[in-house]
């Protein structure tokens, strides 16, 4: 473990912004919320944020992405894969774990070069949480701290950051800070340990379930139609809970032709299982026409389907869905508690 003074860290980030060939992005304040965005100044970086509006998945899987361009008249088709090398600063542990889960998905069966190339060209600099969102239950989900998934990990210890290197990429980045980085002192190691000891006190304490009970609980509740209908009653089918989720990766692919119908592009855009048209297929059939069926599917996917496939619970407890659902019905803690307690 190493340490760097906060003022030296700000100078280091400033140098990266000015001189590094990669784009430097970091968490910034946007009115009363926070978002990952390219940094113009090191002073704009906010490593004390609680949660960002969108997770950093947008850098590996953009909201809109051209996959190919084609011209049928010329008989031409070209693959487009725009990769911007990036250093991403300030990723919380739960988002690092979500990225590890996404990596498995995009490497499984058919490797996805669009996602994987962007991951390869990114350096992930994590930060342990200073402030915690009121909606987060990451400690219950075991995602409040991480031992892997980062290239560099920072912990705020007063006027310094403790710094852990997690990969060769991270090591090369830290080397750029030169003599500003020093070996950690025993007293500073104690501060990191104390931080980790006190961290659970910052989270809401109402989850009543163990994450690894969820696959069994969800299996039991699958056929309880009344439960899902009652809980989904106020759902607006807006899809927000999907789009803000760091482990949701569903997408749609469409060919967009120009007016001459000879040239066009194949576009990949984010999609979400809570949207009405998500499970629509040819012949005007829809496998999940009722909102209760869509609502149930989202929870099944978070706590059961991904576990069956990869051994991961696909909810990392960030709380974004709960915070952003207008009718306030997307909180996984609420649903999982009800299942655990056997209530509606
Ligand atoms: S649960 Fe909430 S955020 Fe999700 S689709 Fe329904 S209304 Fe939108
Ligand atoms: S389901 Fe909600 S709390 Fe869980 S990871 Fe997704 S957005 Fe975060």
Distance between the termini: 48 Å
Strand order of the largest sheet: 3-2-6-7-8-9-1-10
Largest sheet at a glance?
A: 8 strands, mixed
Low-confidence stretches: none
The domain count comes to 2
Overall morphology: globular
Structural class: alpha+beta
Helical residue percent band: 25-40%
SSE order in H/E notation? EHEEEEEHHEHEEHEHHHHEEEEHHH
Task: Give the distinct bound molecules.
Answer: iron/sulfur cluster
Tally of DSSP β-strands: 14
Describe the protein's architecture and organization:
With about 350 residues, the protein is α+β, with helices and mostly antiparallel strands. It folds into two domains: about 1-200, no CATH class; about 210-340, no CATH class. Helices cover about 35% and strands about 20% of the residues. It has helices at about 5-20, 95-105, 115-120, 140, 170-175, 185-200, 215-220, 225-230, 240-245, 290-310, 320-325, 330-340, and strands at about 1-5, 25-30, 35-40, 65-70, 75-80, 85-90, 120-125, 150-155, 160-165, 180-185, 250-255, 265-270, 280, 285. The strands form three sheets. An eight-stranded mixed beta sheet has the order 3-2-6-7-8-9-1-10, with helices on both faces. A four-stranded antiparallel beta sheet has the order 5-4-12-11, with no helix packed on it. Strands 13-14 form a two-stranded antiparallel sheet. The radius of gyration is 22 Å and the shape is globular. Bound molecules: iron/sulfur cluster (2 copies). One iron/sulfur cluster (SF4) binds next to helix 11.
